[in-house]
């Protein structure tokens, strides 16, 4: 018996997927194609010279640390590292510049307590949030800070220094790397705890501040030790007190703030490197490795330690935690002392 209509042949299995699965597969394929160039770019990083923004004038500690590690970093990365000084607003201008750069690792910046804690703590219009607008990479070194005076000031030790300030209130001024710099914030804290009154003279970096103090235009400077030390060693400046865990081998006769009863002021500065927000982790790791490789060179390590600084070389996560902690400290200082940019 035959059927009037032969049965339809079974549909051959073609391996086709339902519509949604097809779309998903295509999306994965397209995503893989798009990700491939990005992955290759990260693997090849850097593909051109890397710009390292120093947000202070040449001659200051930030500039010194940047230039000490720059050549070694460039060798490790396989591209020149170009140090670019962009000073102003207590380091805020150069830091703002980094925030506008592409997150590809070809623009980095030196990060200090001034730029990531003190300046944003005192200036609500600084233009960035240090806790979220950057990618912390590595803290290179921690450095002591120092109050030093021109030899003509008269005082050559802490007791005489404070006595003169208190007997001549408002007569003297002090120089720093800028409003909102760590020197400004720590000196204001010193003033509040010691009862002294001194007028702040902000500069566009440690270099100009030191030059005017050495020239006698300003009698007092609060600065990082690496940039101030050569002038102290030459006798052009007289050290009064240092912010450091203990007395320094370079200045054995100079007390720490803790020794003179001002432990709250006894905070060291830091000098690290950050990238723009969203910097890929492979790039972060390459930059951090380049810094470590540079810092392990005996001549670089010695140059940094000879300034009284100590190498830190921590992880990105540790540096991020440190930035947040320092910002919190200086927010409290600003609020307690009612400081402002005015």
UniProtKB/TrEMBL annotation:
It comes from the Bacteria. Residues 1-34 form the signal peptide. InterPro entries: BUG (IPR005064), Bug_dom1 (IPR042100). It holds the Pfam family TctC. Keywords: Receptor, Signal. Belongs to the UPF0065 (bug) family. This is Tripartite-type tricarboxylate transporter receptor subunit TctC. It comes from Acidovorax soli.
